């Protein structure tokens, strides 16, 4: 115990020590909340002029961007089959890979799927040192040294594998073009293998990205990232841009070591040996990391951080209801375009107005317990809400 | 002791930031110049003291009676961020302290904090930005204001007037 505590305080001290200009960490934990919180701690505490590489792999989870809507981005009904009370819509049979966590990160960008075949890399650096492509280029150099000659950085700052059939001339040092690059818009489309997002603060920039090395779940990723509610929701905030994905086909440890070497050689000019360390679950005992971890796991952050949106419920051919949600609270529940209301709709409205979505885990139960007259109309409303606006319980691991 | 350490840290960050500032914001924009402000002078509604700028590229107008402040991001910052796709505004009635992140701007997959240089209570937010985030790119120092704040004190940390700020952003 005492030894563990000493090791932890030495992590915080090393991280913040201005002498450690180049630092490199690998996490043993597969907890997405913890890894994101260690990363956030690095962003906040590393010395202003330092550059820090952090590598981690999460258990299966979906990570959405800071300003995204989980109801439009994620097929929430299949995340956690066990706790959904058996009311999973039949058209989305759970793919059966077990529990999948849902996480909202602090950086921008779109929704991504993580699993044990994916390595996340992150770089924290001074703003003055930062461009959106710089570190994706570093990763492409590392990949090419491992024989992945089709890897390049695309115009969205992501890494793709070119799928062109014929080989053309390309400068091997050009990280934005390969011999297999085809002209924009022509087939075959490159496969995305790494997606980037950024968090920028006063003086520091964080660039983090996924890297699909050997995911066994490629075929079901689209099922998780396709929401049945999407056609019925008008949302502010950030929409994902979906791309065909592929596996790079490398071993995790080989990629990690190569990337650490590439990073070290990029900063060898700093002269001093880089700090290279392993972190893990015990780092949750560091108060700042614990704080970030708890924040990420609040219902407020997960659900109520969602930008304003309106869900339209089509009760019948004649009646549709617009449900407006602002800061996670239902602000309107009104028949569309001046259609006339019904007693049941009025009753449901009186119950759901000003209600926080994050506290409703079962719409049938919720409406019934508020003595909504149970008729065909109220059952349809509950079904639609459960299908399009479920709030699955977050894991308590 | 801890407080002094963190103050020193901030000072150090500010210094290194000032030196390296031209690429504070990523990509394209280091060379672009700031659009002239004069055209907007008559559009300002309430009488205000001279506009102040922070090294984080926020601007702040304080009313003549010193009771309210209007906050936004500078033309330079808006150009540097690129196309803004979402602005997370503070909530009305929120109490804020100088140095707090009171919101965030998202552009090109990047979330950037909006920092307030002054303490107070948020009295109004520019909800047009919720619907049309891109309008902050069009007129960041006018119609694209972010929040109005009821204040009692002065801004904390370094602030600059227009000329000083322009020099700050042009300095190589």
Short characterization:
The complex is a heterodimer of chains A (397) and B (172). By secondary structure, chain A is of the alpha+beta class.
Radius of gyration of chain A: 23 Å
Quote the distance from N terminus to C terminus of chain A.
Answer: 22 Å
Percent of residues in helices of chain B comes to 25-40%
Shape category of chain B: globular
Low-confidence stretches of chain A: 82-91
What would you call the structural class of chain B?
A: alpha+beta
CATH superfamily of chain B: RNA polymerase II/Efflux pump adaptor protein, barrel-sandwich hybrid domain
Shape of chain A: globular
- For the record, what is the CATH homologous superfamily label of the largest domain in chain A? Bira Bifunctional Protein, Domain 2
Overall pLDDT score of chain A = 89
Protein name (chain A): Putative lipoate-protein ligase A
Biased composition (Basic and acidic residues) (chain A): 162-177
Pathway (chain A): Protein modification; protein lipoylation via exogenous pathway; protein N(6)-(lipoyl)lysine from lipoate: step 2/2
GO molecular function (chain A): lipoyltransferase activity
Per-chain topology:
The complex is a heterodimer of chains A (397) and B (172).
Chain A: H1 2-16, E1 22-27, H2 32-45, E2 51-56, E3 61-64, H3 70-73, E4 101-104, E5 112-114, E6 120-126, H4 134-145, E7 151-153, E8 159-161, E9 191-194, E10 196-200, E11 204-209, H5 221-224, E12 233-235, H6 252-266, E13 275-279, H7 287-296, H8 299-304, E14 309-314, E15 320-326, E16 329-335, H9 343-352, H10 363-369, H11 376-388
Parallel strand pairs in A: 1-2, 1-13, 3-4
Antiparallel strand pairs in A: 2-6, 3-5, 6-11, 7-8, 8-9, 10-11, 12-14, 14-15, 15-16
Chain B: H1 2-20, E1 52-54, E2 58-62, E3 68-73, H2 75-81, E4 84-88, E5 95-96, E6 101-107, E7 110-115, E8 120-125, H3 128-131, H4 135-138, E9 147-150, E10 159-160, H5 162-170
Antiparallel strand pairs in B: 1-2, 1-10, 2-3, 3-9, 4-6, 5-8, 6-7, 8-9
């Amino acid at each position: 115990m005492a030894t563990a505590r000493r090791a932890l305080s030495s992590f915080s001290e090393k991280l913040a020590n201005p002498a450690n200009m180049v630092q490199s960490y690998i996490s043993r934990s597969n907890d997405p909340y913890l890894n994101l919180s260690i990363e956030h701690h690095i962003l906040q505490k590393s010395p202003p002029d330092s550059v820090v590489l952090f590598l981690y792999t999460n258990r299966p989870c979906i990570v959405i961007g800071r300003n995204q809507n989980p109801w439009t981005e994620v097929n929430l009904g299949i995340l956690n089959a066990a706790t959904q009370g058996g009311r999973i819509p039949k058209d989305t049979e759970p793919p059966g890979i077990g529990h999948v966590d849902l996480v909202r990160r602090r950086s921008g960008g779109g929704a991504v799927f993580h699993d044990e075949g994916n390595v996340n890399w992150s770089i924290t650096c001074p703003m003055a040192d930062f461009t959106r492509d710089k570190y994706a280029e570093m990763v492409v150099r590392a990949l090419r040294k491992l024989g992945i000659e089709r890897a390049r950085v695309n115009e969205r700052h992501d890494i793709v594998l070119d799928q062109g059939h014929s080989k053309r001339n390309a400068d091997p040092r050009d990280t934005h073009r390969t011999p297999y690059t085809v002209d924009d818009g022509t087939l075959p489309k490159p496969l995305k293998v790494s997606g980037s997002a950024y968090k920028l603060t006063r003086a520091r920039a964080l660039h983090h990205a996924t890297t699909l090395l050997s995911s066994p779940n490629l075929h079901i990723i689209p099922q998780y990232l396709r929401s049945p509610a999407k056609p019925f929701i008008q949302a502010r905030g950030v929409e994902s841009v979906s791309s065909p994905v592929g596996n790079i086909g490398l071993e995790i440890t080989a990629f990690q070591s190569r990337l650490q070497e590439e990073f070290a050689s990029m900063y060898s000019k700093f002269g001093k040996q880089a700090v290279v360390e392993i972190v893990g679950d015990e780092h949750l005992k560091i108060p700042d990391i614990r704080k970030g971890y708890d924040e990420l796991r609040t219902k407020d952050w997960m659900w109520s951080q969602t930008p304003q949106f309106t869900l339209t419920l089509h009760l019948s051919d004649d009646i549709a209801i617009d449900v407006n949600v602002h800061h996670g609270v239902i602000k309107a529940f009104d028949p569309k375009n001046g259609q006339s209301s019904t007693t049941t709709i009025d009753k449901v409205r009186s119950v759901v107005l000003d209600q926080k979505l994050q506290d409703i885990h079962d719409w049938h139960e919720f409406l019934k317990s508020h003595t909504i007259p149970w008729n065909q109309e109220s059952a349809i409303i509950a079904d639609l809400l459960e299908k399009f606006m479920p709030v699955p319980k977050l894991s308590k691991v | 002791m801890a407080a002094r350490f963190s103050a020193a840290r901030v000072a150090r960050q500010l210094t290194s930031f000032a030196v390296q500032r031209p690429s504070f914001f990523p990509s394209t924009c280091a060379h672009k110049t700031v659009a002239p402000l004069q055209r907007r002078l008559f559009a300002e509604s309430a009488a205000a003291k001279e506009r102040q700028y922070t090294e984080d590229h926020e601007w702040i107008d304080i009313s003549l009676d010193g009771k309210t402040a209007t906050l936004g991001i500078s033309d330079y910052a808006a150009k540097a961020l690129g196309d803004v796709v979402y602005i997370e505004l503070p909530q009305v009635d929120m109490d804020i302290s100088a140095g707090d992140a009171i919101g965030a701007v998202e552009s090109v997959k990047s979330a950037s904090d909006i920092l307030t240089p002054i303490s107070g209570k948020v009295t109004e937010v520019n909800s047009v930005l919720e619907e049309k985030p891109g309008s902050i790119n069009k007129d960041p120092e006018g119609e694209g204001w972010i929040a109005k704040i009821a204040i009692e004190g002065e801004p904390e940390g370094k602030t600059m007037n227009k000329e000083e700020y322009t020099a700050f952003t042009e300095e190589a």
